[in-house]
Amino acid sequence: MAAVVAASERWSAVARRRKRAAGRRPRQGEEPQAEPEADSEAVLRRLLEAEEDLRISDFCSSALETITECLRKQLEQLQSLTEALGRLHLGSSPGGSGEPLALSTSNVKCVCYGLGTFASCPAARIQLAFLLLFLEKCQIPRSHCWVYDPLFSQTEVSVLTSLGVTVLSENEEGKHSVQSQPTVFYMPHCGTALYNNLLWSNWSADALSRVVIIGNSFQGLEERLLARILQENYSYIAKVSDRIAGLGF
Fold first, then answer.
1. CA nearest 130: which of 218, 43, 53?
2. For residue 110, what are the contacts with CB-CB under 8 A and spacing of at least 6?
3. What pLDDT score was predicted for residue 153?
4. 3-class DSSP string for 190-211
5. How many domains does the chain have?
6. In sequence order, what DSSP letters do the residues of 152-169 get, joined into one string?
7. What are the φ/ψ torsions at residue 165 (nearest 5 degrees)?
8. 48 in any annotated domain
C-alpha cells in the first residue's frame, strides 16, 4: 500500500505569524520571528545558505537515506505490492492503469503541498531546501516536481519557477490522482483533510501502490483524533492507518 515517511514533530507548521511587539524576546521553545519578504535574488541567496547548512547536517543525511530506501523498495516491489493490495477489496478509483513500471527515478514525479511562505519564514525555507536535496538525492528531475501553497507570493512563485519546479495554478485540495506514475507527495505538516483527500483520489490497489508520502504519521493522526471523528471526517485514513508501511525520521 502507500508508504508514509513521517517527519519528526520537530518540523513545525509554517503559516504566517503576526509580528511581535518591538523589543519582545521570544520565549523558550517559540519559533523565530518571520522575516520581511525580500526580492527574488535575496530569497535565492537565503535558500542556498539553508540548503548548504542542511546538506551537512546528520538529520538531513539520515532522513534522505530513509526516504531513498523507502522509494527504492517501493519501485522494486511494486508488482508484488499490487498483487497483495488486490486482496483488500478496495473500491473503484479515479486513477490507476495497471501499466508496468520502469525501475527508474526518472519516471517518478513529486507533488508538494503546504510548503509555506519561504521568502519570510525560516522554517518554510528549510522545508524547501530539504525538498530540493531530496530531488537531487533521488535523481528526480525538478521538471517532474509540482508545488502549491495558497500563501505563495509573486516573488515566491518567481523563485520556484527559476528553480525549475512547476507551481500549480489551482488548489487541488490534495485530490491529485497519480494515474500510472509512481509519485512522492511531500506534505510537511499538512492538514488531515488533505491526506484524506489524497487517499480518496487514489483509492485503488494500483494507484496506492505507486504512492509515497513524506509527511505526518498516520498513526499519530489516529491517536490524536477521537475514533468517531476519524471515521466520520477522515474515513480513508481510518481505513489504511493500520495497513500502510510507515517509517519515521
1. 53
2. 131, 134, 135, 140, 144, 145, 146, 183, 184, 185, 186
3. 96
4. CCHHHHHHHHHHCCCHHHHCCE
5. 1
6. --HHHHHHHHHTTPEEPS
7. -95, 165
8. no
Q: How far apart are CA 27 and CA 233, in angstroms?
A: 35
Q: Pull the grid cell for residue 33.
A: 520571528
CATH number at residue 136: 3.40.50
At which residue does the C-alpha cell 507533488 appear? 111
Residue 149 CA to residue 170 CA, distance in Å, equals 10
Residue-range definition of the domain harbouring residue 62: 3-8+57-248
Q: Is 45 left (phi over 0), alpha (psi -120 to 50) or beta?
A: alpha
Segments of the chain with pLDDT less than 50: 9-26, 91-102
* 145 within domain boundaries: yes
CA distances from residue 3 to 14, 87, 110, 158, 196 in whole angstroms, order as listed: 24, 18, 14, 32, 14
Task: Judge whether 71 and 103 are in contact, CB under 8 Å.
Answer: no
pTM greater than 0.70 (yes/no):
yes
Q: Where does the chain have alpha helices with state H?
A: 40-55, 58-76, 78-85, 122-137, 154-162, 192-201, 205-208, 218-224, 227-233, 235-240
26-41 per-position pLDDT tens digit:
455 555 566 666 789 9
- Residue 64 included in any domain: yes
Would you mind telling me the total number of residues written for the chain in this entry? Answer: 249
Give the span between the Cα atoms of 6 and 233, in whole angstroms.
21
Residue 47: how many CA atoms within 13 Å on its side-chain side? Answer: 26
- Block residue for cell numbers 545558505: 49
